[in-house]
């Protein structure tokens, strides 16, 4: 309980100077913002650039504290906190403590700034981050311009296009990119085997056939399939595609396509 | 008067340029309905037909010609250039348009579902040509009907489709949840 | 004399017609090597280049242009016509997430390099989905292996990537921001 309460207290209870100044935003927006960091370097850069700190002379105490605040909030928001974030936290604290240590006088000549390696990594990452943005601005085939594609009817031989699962994936990615409003609805845990089984059941019932409940289960192919078939049947019922009837308790259960009773009057 | 005539001429040249470009780029024949969609303004069919004929005659004597097929207009290489083109390419397999691929992907991932539901996910109409292409290939089939007005057919992919894909089951398709992280939603609205 | 000049002119026009047709039909950029293959006779590269330039200027002011890319020549619609074409088909390739684009940029500017080296620069793990997506798009490929334990693959961007960005070579990529200059000289060495 303590662990959960602490970040919240940090967020709303502490003096302003103790907090990342831009954290006062609604929790949902905060979550979205935190999810947008591409890792600890990205987060650090954000903290440094946001406050116009000198990247060549990083105030370690300030940055470390702010970084830890963000990591705490990420933790509290139950975001998937990659190990890299914690590793960076350890590194920041290490650098901070090395800077506090008095250096032996003998080594003063070749003094090495403990921050140097971090600075180098930050700058290199920032450079690549900018480059990624620039590349994304370039006119891109298919997105910003189209190739000419004149048809050539070679000898009228019918050749069928080849399609691979990769092509399907690519098609789905472009759908995802386009359908931003249906995005959350489209990206949901897999239920493929259920949808597949729904198709199978509909086919079995085609033409208004009545089947006994048990006939729809293929017992020879393992328990997972039985479970999936059952879920598929529930889903079909929910979507109003099939009707399940039972005359009275302990009698056989019949399944038919919804709306097909006109073809065959109900059995008594 | 002369001025408006001049600007009309200019408009027509622009029209011709846009239509020619669209026809050179399109992967499938463009119907008059498609061509209309190119322009924000509502254009008369006669005008478009006139321009199409103008494009057609502008290409006379070239290696490529504009032809009218049952499903629309398309540029096509003249057959007498085949000897040259054959030397070039050791037959590229043809490809389905993105519209066909998206429709197939939706049915594979989300079927059984109706054409209307496919259109909802794609955000655009699904032409009956697309559905026919996939049905004739034996990759999709109607497995039932939704009990709503019009009793629309429910499309599902077939076993032949899985076989052709080299998959044992639809569960072997790339998982959707992971794909979601790879792309950004479009920030720019697509024009209506 | 006059006759042979005339026939030379005729040949050249024919050459131009064949090359234009092949370029309009080709589904990929055509290199000079490809273009040579169109003709049974052996043709000089200078002649072909001259004809390519003639085609290029013949298309000035049209909606489609002939461009030179990393792997050859290809016709494409001018950028300013894309808004019209977008009205026709809203299907577009996806805009990739930052994680994908950063990985791509690192490979483009720092490649060939291993996945581990990419991760070092980004400071986070690079999921195999990201790598696979870029490979499947044909934008990156493994060009060798680092002779360290596990022999990790070295990734590099492909010519198809440059083609799709409309570039002739990696030197045409947007110049890197000169952040490196700010680093103290002693710290510039690569990490161990």
Supply the key terms.
heterotrimer, A: 268 residues, three-stranded antiparallel beta sheet, 10 helices, 4% strand, B: 192 residues, 9 helices, 13% strand, globular, disordered C terminus
Task: Give structural notes.
- Chain A: InterPro entries: ScpA.
- Chain A: Its main location: cytoplasm.
- Chain A: It is found in: Cytoplasm.
- Chain A: Component of a cohesin-like complex composed of ScpA, ScpB and the Smc homodimer, in which ScpA and ScpB bind to the head domain of Smc. The presence of the three proteins is required for the association of the complex with DNA.
- The complex is a heterotrimer, with one copy of chain A (268 residues) and two copies of chain B (192 residues).
- With 268 residues, chain A is mainly α.
- Chain A has helices at 2-12, 27-35, 40-50, 60-76, 83-100, 116-137, 165-178, 183-186, 192-204, 223-238, and strands at 211-212, 242-246, 253-257.
- Chain A is built from ten helices and three strands, in the order αααααααααβαββ.
- A three-stranded antiparallel sheet of chain A has the order 1-3-2, covered by helices on one side.
- The longest helix of chain A has 22 residues, at 116-137.
- Residues 188-192 of chain B have low confidence and may be disordered.
- In chain B, helix 1 crosses helix 3 (45-58) and helix 5 crosses helix 7.
- The relative contact order of chain B is 0.08.
- Chain B starts with a helix and ends in an 8-residue tail after the last strand.
- Chain B is globular and about 60 Å long.
- With 192 residues, chain B is an alpha+beta fold.
- Chain B contains nine helices and five strands.
- Helix content of chain B is 48%, strand content 13%.
- Chains in contact: A-B, A-C, B-C.
- The interface between A and B is large, with 55 and 64 residues.
- Strand 5 of chain B pairs antiparallel with strand 3 of chain C, so a sheet runs across the interface.
């Amino acid at each position: 309980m303590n662990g959960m309460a602490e970040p919240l207290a940090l967020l709303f209870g502490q003096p302003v100077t103790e907090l990342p100044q831009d954290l006062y935003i609604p929790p949902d927006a905060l979550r979205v913002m935190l999810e947008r960091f591409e890792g600890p370097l990205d987060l650090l850069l954000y903290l440094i650039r946001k406050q116009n700190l000198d990247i060549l002379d990083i105030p370690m105490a300030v940055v470390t504290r702010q970084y830890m605040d963000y990591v705490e909030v990420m933790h509290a928001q139950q975001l998937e906190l990659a190990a890299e974030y914690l590793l960076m936290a350890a590194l920041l604290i290490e650098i901070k403590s090395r800077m506090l240590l008095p250096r032996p006088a003998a080594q003063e000549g070749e003094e090495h700034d403990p921050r140097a390696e971090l600075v180098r990594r930050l700058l290199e990452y920032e450079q690549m981050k900018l480059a990624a943005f620039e590349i994304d601005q370039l006119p891109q085939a298919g997105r910003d311009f189209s190739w000419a594609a004149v048809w050539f009817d070679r000898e009228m031989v019918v050749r069928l296009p080849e399609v691979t699962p990769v092509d399907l994936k690519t098609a789905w990615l472009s759908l995802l990119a386009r359908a931003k409003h249906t995005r959350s609805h489209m990206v949901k845990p897999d239920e493929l085997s259920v949808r597949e089984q729904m198709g199978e059941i509909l086919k079995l019932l085609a033409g208004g056939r009545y089947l006994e409940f048990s006939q729809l289960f293929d017992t020879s192919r393992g328990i997972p399939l039985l479970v999936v078939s059952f879920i598929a049947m529930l889903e079909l019922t929910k979507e109003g595609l099939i009707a399940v009837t039972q005359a009275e308790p302990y009698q056989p259960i019949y399944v038919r396509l919804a709306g097909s009773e006109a073809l065959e009057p109900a059995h008594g | 008067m002369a001025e408006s005539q001049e600007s009309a001429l200019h408009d027509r040249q622009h029209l011709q340029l846009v239509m020619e470009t669209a026809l050179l780029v399109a992967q499938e024949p463009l119907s008059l309905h498609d061509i209309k969609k190119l322009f924000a303004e509502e254009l008369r069919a006669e005008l478009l037909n006139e321009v199409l004929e103008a494009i057609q005659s502008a290409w006379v004597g070239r290696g490529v010609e504009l032809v009218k097929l049952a499903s629309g207009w398309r540029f096509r290489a003249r057959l007498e250039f085949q000897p040259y083109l054959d030397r070039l390419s050791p037959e590229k397999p043809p490809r389905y348009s993105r519209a066909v691929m998206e429709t197939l992907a939706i049915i594979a991932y989300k079927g059984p579902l109706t054409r209307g539901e496919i259109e909802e996910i794609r955000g655009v109409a699904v032409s009956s040509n697309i559905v026919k292409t996939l049905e004739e290939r034996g990759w999709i089939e109607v497995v039932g009907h939704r009990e709503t007005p019009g009793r629309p057919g429910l499309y599902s992919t077939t076993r032949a489709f899985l076989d052709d894909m080299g998959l044992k089951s639809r569960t072997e398709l790339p998982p959707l949840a992971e794909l979601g992280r790879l792309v950004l939603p479009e920030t720019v609205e697509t024009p209506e």
